[in-house]
Amino acid sequence: MTVKNKIIYQIYPKSYLDTTGNGIGDIRGIISKLDYLADLGIDMIWLNPIYPSPQRDNGYDISDYVAIDPMFGTMDEFELMIAEGKKRGISFMLDMVLNHVSTEHVWFQKALAGDKYYQDFFFIQETPTDWVSKFGGSAWAPFGDTGKYYLHLFDVTQADLNWRNENVRQALFDVVNFWREKGVHGFRFDVINLIGKDAILKSNPENEGKAEYTDKPLTHEYLQMMNQASFGQDTDAITVGEMSSTTIDNCILYSQPNRHELSMTFNFHHLKVDYANGQKWTKSPFDFQALKTLFHTWGEQMSDGNGWNALFWNNHDQPRAINRFVDFKNFRIKGATMLAASIHLSRGTPYIYMGEEIGMVDPDFQSIADYVDIESKNAYQALLDKGYTAEAAFEIIQIKSRDNARTPMQWDTTENAGFSKGTPWLSVGNHKEINVEQDKDGEIFQFYKKLIALRKSDTLISQGNYKAAYQDSEHIYAFIREDEGRKLLVVNNFSNQVVDFNLMADFKHHQILVNNYTDYTENSLQPYQSIAFLCD
Ligand code: TEU
């Protein structure tokens, strides 16, 4: 399967590079950086939505699935980007937001105008359920002045589509095929495990408004239909499903090759180990043992052809991992490279989120006015409504907002980090200290290049099985990769302390990789040190 030795780089187009001066990243900006990305060694670029959208949820509220929003550029420029990427061995993955559509989409507008055919595209009911939106408040809103309500699991302007309706499914399969015909070989499916909803939605008193719609069995059938009707016809297709609040068992089913659903899945449990009581909008240190357990469970259960995992620390919805999981103020470079080694040498397909390759960190915004994300603004108000002081509420937004990852890419030390000659749509972070111009020859970028090259050069890394190691260690996350009798031991010190370490006899003196230290001293690991030992 092509997916196993590929590296995927995520670009948040709005924040990558603006070539027109409107303060918004654009397609020509991406084209201008393809050589930079080819040098890094990546194979595919995942673009967050660039379709026409009111931008209420930064493009995840789509008003036209088969066009390019003029603020990002033109369809000709899109086709040029595909062609320029192909010259460099880089293909593209587009974001398919098929669970919901903007209320400004013509389908919803026709439904509002009384067109029964399009009303059947949505969940419109006289009796709403007690479900809550993932962005706060009720998941239902009045459907015009009909006295009925429509479902929106996210923002009120994002109406859920009813996949039970075969006309909806066909219309969405046509969307995927439109982009396939443009030469797109990768697709990321947004919250795709929410599409299996019941035809008539009811409250379940026992569930107190919790998700009754996640990972429903029909989801698998719909994915198999979409696979067969679209990307499944391409031998080089790479697909990934974003699975909201899912389980490892479902992720195995979604990504088992013989089920012909998806190539792999994103799940997020490892990015919730710093949630207090499972709640995102809290302040809590991360639970390292929980993190290790999740990685070991996924690694071992997804071995032996049992499904395939996307490996990632960062994306556009998450504060940057370097701020959450390492002492970045004192060990930024070593912490960044340790995080990189901990997934790039593991079993799955690694994703690099823009800026991660130079160790970009969250911005140090000082006012709630600096944040623009709808989820963060709703959360701030909800915290105030719960009685938090403005200061306490702001402190939580500062560490958990999705805007932390969405600040403009830091290209150099010039104004606006070289991102735009205009006023950036979102303020820039600390580009004077961290930027591509000074860091692309630096330790983090060069270590990423080394990891990528290693994965491509050795099937032990791209295909080897996974086995947990040093499970009882307080600070070390370690695993063994095994393939055809060869073994690789990877050890990562997840702490800012020197920790004891006794190397397994099998691996004595076969070190192949170490991050940022000239060597390692017997029986101990330096702060945030990662080492890989080969036994063949
Ligand atoms: O995110 C899915 C999702 O569940 C989000 O709530 C996300 O996990 C959360 O914000 C993390 O705190 C996808 C997209 O990635 C996100 O950008 C969209 O806002 C959302 O779906 C709706 O399309």
TrEMBL record:
<dbReference type="InterPro" id="IPR006047">
    <property type="entry name" value="GH13_cat_dom"/>
</dbReference>
<dbReference type="InterPro" id="IPR017853">
    <property type="entry name" value="GH"/>
</dbReference>
<dbReference type="GO" id="GO:0005737">
    <property type="term" value="C:cytoplasm"/>
</dbReference>
<dbReference type="GO" id="GO:0004556">
    <property type="term" value="F:alpha-amylase activity"/>
</dbReference>
<feature type="domain" description="Glycosyl hydrolase family 13 catalytic">
    <location>
        <begin position="10"/>
        <end position="406"/>
    </location>
</feature>
<dbReference type="InterPro" id="IPR013780">
    <property type="entry name" value="Glyco_hydro_b"/>
</dbReference>
<dbReference type="Pfam" id="PF23915">
    <property type="entry name" value="SusG_C"/>
</dbReference>
<dbReference type="InterPro" id="IPR056300">
    <property type="entry name" value="SusG-like_C"/>
</dbReference>
<keyword id="KW-0378">Hydrolase</keyword>
<dbReference type="GO" id="GO:0008788">
    <property type="term" value="F:alpha,alpha-phosphotrehalase activity"/>
</dbReference>
<dbReference type="InterPro" id="IPR045857">
    <property type="entry name" value="O16G_dom_2"/>
</dbReference>
<dbReference type="InterPro" id="IPR012769">
    <property type="entry name" value="Trehalose_TreC"/>
</dbReference>
<dbReference type="Pfam" id="PF00128">
    <property type="entry name" value="Alpha-amylase"/>
</dbReference>
<comment type="similarity">
    <text>Belongs to the glycosyl hydrolase 13 family.</text>
</comment>
<keyword id="KW-0326">Glycosidase</keyword>
<protein>
    <recommendedName>
        <fullName>Alpha,alpha-phosphotrehalase</fullName>
        <ecNumber>3.2.1.93</ecNumber>
    </recommendedName>
</protein>
<dbReference type="GO" id="GO:0005993">
    <property type="term" value="P:trehalose catabolic process"/>
</dbReference>
